[in-house]
Design goal:
Largest sheet: none
Number of strands: 0
Distance between the termini: 32 Å
Order of helices and strands: HHH
Shape: extended
Number of domains: 1
Number of helices: 3
Radius of gyration: 18 Å
Helix content: 40-55%
Length: 95
Protein backbone atom coordinates (compact mmCIF):
# COMPACT_ATOMS: atom_id res chain seq x y z
CA UNK A 1 0.00 0.00 0.00
CA UNK A 2 2.81 2.41 0.82
CA UNK A 3 4.43 1.91 -2.58
CA UNK A 4 1.21 2.88 -4.34
CA UNK A 5 0.72 5.92 -2.16
CA UNK A 6 4.29 7.06 -2.72
CA UNK A 7 3.89 6.58 -6.48
CA UNK A 8 0.78 8.79 -6.40
CA UNK A 9 2.66 11.44 -4.44
CA UNK A 10 5.51 11.43 -6.99
CA UNK A 11 2.96 11.66 -9.79
CA UNK A 12 1.28 14.61 -8.09
CA UNK A 13 4.61 16.43 -7.69
CA UNK A 14 5.40 15.93 -11.39
CA UNK A 15 1.92 17.09 -12.30
CA UNK A 16 2.31 20.27 -10.24
CA UNK A 17 5.66 20.96 -11.94
CA UNK A 18 4.05 20.52 -15.36
CA UNK A 19 1.21 22.80 -14.33
CA UNK A 20 3.63 25.54 -13.27
CA UNK A 21 5.64 25.17 -16.48
CA UNK A 22 2.55 25.46 -18.68
CA UNK A 23 0.97 28.35 -16.81
CA UNK A 24 -2.37 29.42 -18.27
CA UNK A 25 -2.34 26.60 -20.84
CA UNK A 26 -2.94 24.06 -18.03
CA UNK A 27 -6.61 23.06 -17.74
CA UNK A 28 -7.42 22.19 -14.13
CA UNK A 29 -11.13 22.70 -13.80
CA UNK A 30 -11.66 19.00 -12.98
CA UNK A 31 -8.99 18.31 -10.33
CA UNK A 32 -8.09 15.01 -11.98
CA UNK A 33 -5.27 12.70 -10.92
CA UNK A 34 -4.47 11.39 -14.40
CA UNK A 35 -4.70 13.87 -17.25
CA UNK A 36 -3.40 14.75 -20.67
CA UNK A 37 -0.21 16.81 -20.91
CA UNK A 38 -2.24 19.98 -20.46
CA UNK A 39 -4.46 18.84 -17.57
CA UNK A 40 -7.59 17.92 -19.49
CA UNK A 41 -9.41 14.57 -19.12
CA UNK A 42 -7.93 11.59 -20.95
CA UNK A 43 -10.22 10.27 -23.66
CA UNK A 44 -10.78 6.51 -23.28
CA UNK A 45 -9.86 5.74 -26.89
CA UNK A 46 -6.59 7.64 -26.56
CA UNK A 47 -5.75 5.82 -23.33
CA UNK A 48 -6.21 2.48 -25.04
CA UNK A 49 -4.34 3.32 -28.25
CA UNK A 50 -1.48 5.34 -26.80
CA UNK A 51 -0.84 3.63 -23.47
CA UNK A 52 -2.76 0.50 -22.55
CA UNK A 53 -2.42 -1.64 -25.68
CA UNK A 54 1.23 -0.66 -26.29
CA UNK A 55 2.01 -1.55 -22.65
CA UNK A 56 0.39 -4.96 -23.12
CA UNK A 57 2.41 -5.50 -26.28
CA UNK A 58 5.70 -4.52 -24.58
CA UNK A 59 4.91 -6.93 -21.74
CA UNK A 60 4.05 -9.62 -24.32
CA UNK A 61 0.57 -9.98 -22.83
CA UNK A 62 -2.60 -10.70 -24.80
CA UNK A 63 -4.81 -7.79 -25.79
CA UNK A 64 -7.70 -7.55 -23.34
CA UNK A 65 -10.46 -5.07 -22.67
CA UNK A 66 -9.56 -2.38 -20.14
CA UNK A 67 -12.69 -3.32 -18.16
CA UNK A 68 -11.30 -6.84 -17.68
CA UNK A 69 -8.71 -5.39 -15.31
CA UNK A 70 -11.37 -4.93 -12.64
CA UNK A 71 -12.19 -8.64 -12.81
CA UNK A 72 -8.51 -9.53 -12.62
CA UNK A 73 -8.03 -7.24 -9.63
CA UNK A 74 -11.04 -8.75 -7.85
CA UNK A 75 -9.76 -12.27 -8.49
CA UNK A 76 -6.30 -11.42 -7.16
CA UNK A 77 -7.80 -9.80 -4.05
CA UNK A 78 -9.95 -12.88 -3.47
CA UNK A 79 -6.93 -15.16 -3.79
CA UNK A 80 -5.01 -13.05 -1.27
CA UNK A 81 -7.95 -13.12 1.12
CA UNK A 82 -8.19 -9.34 1.03
CA UNK A 83 -11.86 -9.44 0.09
CA UNK A 84 -14.56 -12.07 0.43
CA UNK A 85 -16.56 -13.48 -2.43
CA UNK A 86 -19.96 -11.87 -2.85
CA UNK A 87 -23.00 -14.10 -2.53
CA UNK A 88 -24.20 -12.75 -5.88
CA UNK A 89 -23.12 -14.54 -8.99
CA UNK A 90 -22.20 -12.77 -12.20
CA UNK A 91 -25.58 -13.69 -13.67
CA UNK A 92 -27.28 -11.80 -10.80
CA UNK A 93 -25.47 -8.59 -11.63
CA UNK A 94 -27.84 -5.92 -12.97
CA UNK A 95 -27.08 -4.73 -16.49
Amino acid sequence: MRHGLEALRRHRRRQLEERLALGPVWQDEWGLVFTTRVGSPIRPGNLLRRSFWPALKRAELPRVRFHDLSHTAATLLLLRGTIRRSSRSCSDTPR
